[in-house]
Each structure stands twice: as structure tokens, then as C-alpha cells.
Amino acid sequence: MLDALTLDQIRMFVTVAEAGSFRAGAARLLRAQSAVSHAIANLENQLGVAVFDRSGHRPTLTAAGAALLEDARAVLLKVDFLRARARGLGEGVETELALMVDTLYPLPLAAAALGELRAALPSVRLRLATAPLGGTLQALRDEACDLAIMAGEDFRDPRIETEALQAVPIVAVAARAHPLAQRRAKTLAGADLADHLQIVLEDPSDLSEGRDFGVLSPQTLRVGTQDAKRALILAGVGWGRLPQWAVERELAEGHLLPLPATALGPQGVAQTQTYLAWRTDRALGVAALALREVLHRLAAAPVARVRRRVPGESPVGAGAKAA
Question: Which parts of the chain register pLDDT below 50?
Fold first, then answer.
């Protein structure tokens, strides 16, 4: 009978499969190896199939085990979500809320959202940090933030829930005196860009190890912050890609010129989708739900209009306070 299956058995099955051995799985679970082996043997008896082949030096998943592993993970995710939601129902407004934002996301929108949240819930201590590439996902994994705004589709985790916010234009640019800007060509091929130094943002996490995104030149100068990247491009050291909202003034004043690099999108402009994200095993509290509502409402607002908004002009609605 499947009724005798326990969550403990399922969790042990998933942990051993991910750890690669009964010993490593037992160490992660802080349990005796014999107890883990016994629990998984009972699980196999209940299911009527062997989930591990024990004939080799290390246990390997059987075909049935590999098929059932994703179902087991899904069960654990649902249980973690149930527990998190139950905790959230019994708690009040958070004392602190931490938001991690991808450096591509318009900071004026984040500032406007946090300003509204502060006006509505002044008792909540707010923390804001920024990170590029896999840094936002890593912060969620490490429980270093409550909510994150991620960019692009390159970093995903089944334990992380995401909701689309808005697309952000990313433009290839160079300083006015840079050779690429001086060419005044209608289009630039990838080979043209490869002849010049590209300023590239480095991932603070290990999630993109061995991978590059939008890198067309073998000559790169890697930096840790978007501000450093922007400063080097403005100084003419190299060319690079920056969010359009961050260089609107420089483009309007002619200090930076867009590069019509077709390899990076129409006229060198690519649209990168941003997402609001949080852990499925942690329920969103009152403040997090209110911030979520504001971010979705601001998603359609032009960045320039948000910049001009007077703080407190559009406070969080009463419905959000009670969410």
C-alpha cells in the first residue's frame, strides 16, 4: 500500500540521488547511513520497484528511479510550500524586507516601489542590493533576500517562483571618440566588434561558470559593477552593452553613441525580460506582497515618468496592506 510512504523516505530518496551515495546523503541529512539505507529499502518495497541499482561501487538510479525522482521532488516542493504558507498565515507584518535587484532592472522603478512601501509600512526596515547575472538567484538560494528581480532566462531553479515584470532595452554603445562610433556605419557585423575591446560585467556567483552572454570580442575587460562598466565605456576604453535607462542622458547629449550591431539585436538593441522571484518554501509576508503589487503596477509605467513622481504621490493601496 502506498499509504505507508512517508515524507522522510521521499526526502532521503531525493537527497541520496542528489548526493550520489548513501554515505553522502546520510551526511547531508545528519542521519546514520544504515537508517537511510533502511528507509530507502522500505520506500522501494512500498513502491514495488527498485529506485537504485546497488551492484556497482556507487548506487545509481534505475530507469524507474530516474522517472520517479522528479515526482518525489515535486512532492517535497509542495510540502515545503504548504509549511511556508501556514507559517505566513500565522505571522504579522515583517520587521525587515530585503530586495535584491539585477543591475539591468531600472533602479528608478525599484526606488519608486520602495518609496511607496515605506510610506505605507514605515515600521518595516528595508534593504536593497544589486547584483548582475546569477547573483540574484544565488541570493535567493542563500536566503540572503526575501524578493529578487532577475533578468533573462539563463538562471532558473525549480525552488524559485517567478513572475514576469517588464522587458528592459539593452543597447550596445561606445564613446563618441571610439573607433566603432566614428565609423558611422548603418550596420556593424560581429567581426567589426571583435576587433575592439569589450567591457564585460562579471558574474559574482558560480552559476554562469564557463559561459558568456552577449560577448562578441575575444578581447575583454571584466568588471564587477555596472557603474564601472559604464565609466570605462564613457572613457573610451572599450565598447559594451548597457541598459538603455542607465545611459539615456549620455545618449541624448552625444557622449555615447549606439552601435548598430545586428548580432546583438535590431540596431544593436535587445529586449531582456525581467522577473520578480522568491523562494517557494518561504511564504510572502504582508510587506513582500505589498511590494509585489507595486512592482507589477509600475511595470507598465515609463521610467521617465516614474523618475518625476513625487514620493508618496501613489501610496500602496489599502488592499495591499491587508494582503
Answer: 1, 303-323
